[in-house]
Every structure is written in C-alpha cells, then in structure tokens.
Amino acid sequence: MLLAFYGRKRSLRIILSELRTNKLGTNLADLGTFFLENGFSVKIVVWTENLPRSLRDLDSRTLAAELHRGCEWKNLTTFLNGGGRISIRPVGFRELVSALAKKQPPILSIDVVRMYGMKGMKRSGHYVIPVAVNRNTMTINDPNFPGGAVSHPTPEIFHTCRMRGGGMLFIKPK
C-alpha cells in the first residue's frame, strides 16, 4: 500500500518473498527493515513494558549493541544496524499530524482485538495507515475492510497503539 503511494510498483508475491514473516505475520522491526532495504529512512515509535527500563533512553546505536546480546531482540538489532531509528515512548498525536501534513503517512500497529471488540480472543497485532486525523476522529486505511477507509475515535486508536507491541512506523523516501 505505501510502496504504491510512493510510486514503487511491487507485486504482493515479491513483497512477501522479501519481507520476513512467521506464522503470525510480521512485526514492526522486520517491516522497518523491509522499508530500509527498499530505499526509505525509517523510525519506529513504540512503547513496551518488555524492554528493560535501563534501555529506554539509549540512542539507537547503543541500544542495538545492548539488544544484540538477547536473541529475542535480533530482528530489532537488524533494523537498527541497517540504519533504522527507534524511540521508546508512547505514540504522539502531534507527530502523526505532522507526518500526514508532509504527506508521509506512517504505519500504525494496533491491537485489532481491542480495536474491534473481539471478545474472548487474545491480543492480535494489525497494521493500518492513517489518512486523516483530528482530536476526535481518525480515518484509517484498513486492509480488513472493502474499500479500505474506516473512521474510529482518535483516542481509541491511540490507546491500541500504546498497548504491548503497538506503535508507529514512520517512513520516508531517502
């Protein structure tokens, strides 16, 4: 979706062959690495309780060195060593508005179970693209909906972005 937005034509088959995935899909770090390898600069803004407090304020290069020691974080070190940046903090409204004003829509990672009220299911990550936002409503392109665009209360979407594993992937062409 975003590759086409930036005028880069790629078939879904080729994208899937290049994007690191597992049986559950992909994660922000692997998605970020994919965009780095395709000529974009990338920054992840994510909040997670899983990251030790001592690592939250480190610059990207120091964080990569620290994370390399733990195998569960290797996909993040690949992203950071490839030139990606990360900011460990809750996702911010102003930076989303700024990105959209620059016509650089980010990818949001949300908890789709919480977002769509799927009772009895575990948390499940899902990627959407915001196309318009104000303090009350955010319109997102969601691949789960025919026609794509659907609107939700902005606070609700931000809440799901701040859940474990949620965040924002900011990309722009180099």
How would you describe this structure to a colleague?
The protein contains 8 helices and 7 strands. The chain has helices at 2-5, 12-18, 28-37, 60-67, 74-81, 93-101, 112-115, 154-161; strands spanning 40-46, 85-88, 107-111, 125-133, 137-141, 149-153, 167-173. A hairpin with a 3-residue loop joins strand 4 (125-133) and strand 5 (137-141). Helix 3 (28-37) packs parallel to helix 5 and helix 4 packs antiparallel against helix 5. The mean pLDDT is 79.
Fill in the keyword field for this structure:
8 helices; 174 residues; alpha+beta; seven-stranded mixed sheet
In short:
This protein has 174 residues and is α+β, with helices and mostly antiparallel strands. It is 33% helix and 24% strand. The chain is built from 8 helices and 7 strands, in the order H-H-H-E-H-H-E-H-E-H-E-E-E-H-E.
How are the secondary structure elements laid out?
Layout: H1 2-5, H2 12-18, H3 28-37, E1 40-46, H4 60-67, H5 74-81, E2 85-88, H6 93-101, E3 107-111, H7 112-115, E4 125-133, E5 137-141, E6 149-153, H8 154-161, E7 167-173
Taking the alpha carbons of the first and last residues, their distance comes to: 18 Å
Strand order of the largest sheet: 2-1-7-3-4-5-6
Helices, by number, come to 8
According to DSSP, the number of beta strands is 7
| Helix and strand sequence | HHHEHHEHEHEEEHE
What would the principal axes of the Cα set say about the shape?
A: globular
Radius of gyration: 16 Å
Poorly predicted spans: none
Secondary structure class reads alpha+beta
Beta content: 15-25%
Q: Oligomeric form of this entry? A: single chain
How would you sum up the major sheet?
Answer: 7 strands, mixed
Summarize model confidence as the mean pLDDT. 79
Helicity range:
25-40%
